Amino acid sequence: MQQMGLWDFLDGVPDDYEPKARMSAEETEKAFDYLKNHPLFLDQIPENLDQYPEMQALQNLAYDDTPYNIAKNLLEKANDIVRNQGSKNYFLKKALEVYSDGINQECGDKDIIAKLFSNRALVQYKLKNYKAAIQDCKWAIETDPSFIKPYYRCAQCLYQLTYYSEANKMCDLALQIAKEKDIIELKAKIEEQLKKLQEQKEEEKKQQELVKICRTKGIRVGPASISLPSHCQPKKFFLQDGQLVVPILITYPEFQQRDFIQHSYENDLFTDHLNILFQEPLPWDTEQNYTIESVEAYIELDDGLHAKINKNAHMLTIMKGYSITIRDFIEIIIVSPQSNYYKRFRQEYKIVNT
């Protein structure tokens, strides 16, 4: 075939042809606007799709094919939306529609159908529609039981809904297919939560037993109103060999100081604990007004008043002999009548005679 030369091409140009004048600024701007909004030059799918007839026409072409090809193309299209715009809810919802369109094609290919359901589940997960995602995962698994991703995504959703046992079973099913790192890590997180739940149940059972025993001893118990400092251990009373063991927080309001007695058994005399505390002079008691003989001990009653307690009483007597509710630990206030602070204490703390 003979190649056409320039002059041969020009032979087809009419003799009276006049080249068009250069476009005006208005025409140039209009042409650029058209190109900028043309589907071939768009960076992303516009939200107001109805204002882009060219884009709608291209979309319509996508459905002019066999169900298999349409479903495959829709799968790829939705995947691109999630991959490129997956952080925005609008585009996630758009991808959801595209995956659904692909599913509705009923293309008959189990690989494509399973991926459509599984990927739609991923979008539902991102939108926090966990129950809808679980249903899609189930359909994906029913379509292709060897496809591992829906097992993992289902376990993720169950974890978010705190269905830890079910999530753990789903991980086990996935690990039968392949030992993938993400699934192993998720299973470890789930088992950690299951461990915490078991520990919590055991602790609740112990507390129920403890409350029952306290009632038989004539002791009222209730939830804590304040928390002990982090260095104070244990933080709450417990049973040991049938005996109630209660931590005691000793408060010296005059000096804004505290002592902590870790283990006070119900048969202990309170004065035995004081003997340990006052083996040596208190470092902040510069006038040495606080001695084992001089100090008085007070406890707050449930009505907010304070009662003086017998230092020589057993701890069980103190716990059940006053109108108090044990809230994890006992707080006992120590003051000295020999101190100038004592009168102020009696006025501020509303002392009741018992």
3D structure, described in words:
- The protein has 354 residues and is α/β, with parallel strands linked by helices.
- The protein has helices spanning 6-10, 25-36, 53-62, 67-85, 89-104, 110-126, 130-143, 149-160, 164-177, 181-216, 270-277, 315-321, 341-348; strands at 220-221, 238-240, 243-252, 257-265, 296-300, 306-309, 325-326, 330-335, 351-352.
- The strands form two sheets. Strands 2, 3, 4, 5, 6, 8 and 9 form a seven-stranded mixed β-sheet that branches. Strands 1-7 form a two-stranded parallel sheet.
- Strand 5 (296-300) and strand 6 (306-309) form a beta hairpin.
- The termini are far apart.
Gyration radius over CA:
39 Å
Q: Can you tell me the residue ranges where pLDDT is under 50 for at least 5 consecutive residues?
A: 1-13
Q: Estimate the mean pLDDT confidence.
A: 85
What share of residues are in beta strands? 5-15%
What labels describe this entry?
single chain, 354 residues, 7-stranded mixed β-sheet, 9 strands, 50% helix
In short:
This protein is of the alpha/beta class and 354 residues long.
SSE layout:
Blueprint: H1 6-10, H2 25-36, H3 53-62, H4 67-85, H5 89-104, H6 110-126, H7 130-143, H8 149-160, H9 164-177, H10 181-216, E1 220-221, E2 238-240, E3 243-252, E4 257-265, H11 270-277, E5 296-300, E6 306-309, H12 315-321, E7 325-326, E8 330-335, H13 341-348, E9 351-352
Parallel strand pairs: 1-7, 3-8, 6-9
Antiparallel strand pairs: 2-3, 3-4, 5-6, 5-8
Helix pairs in contact: 4-5, 4-6, 5-6, 6-7, 6-8, 7-8, 8-9, 8-10, 9-10
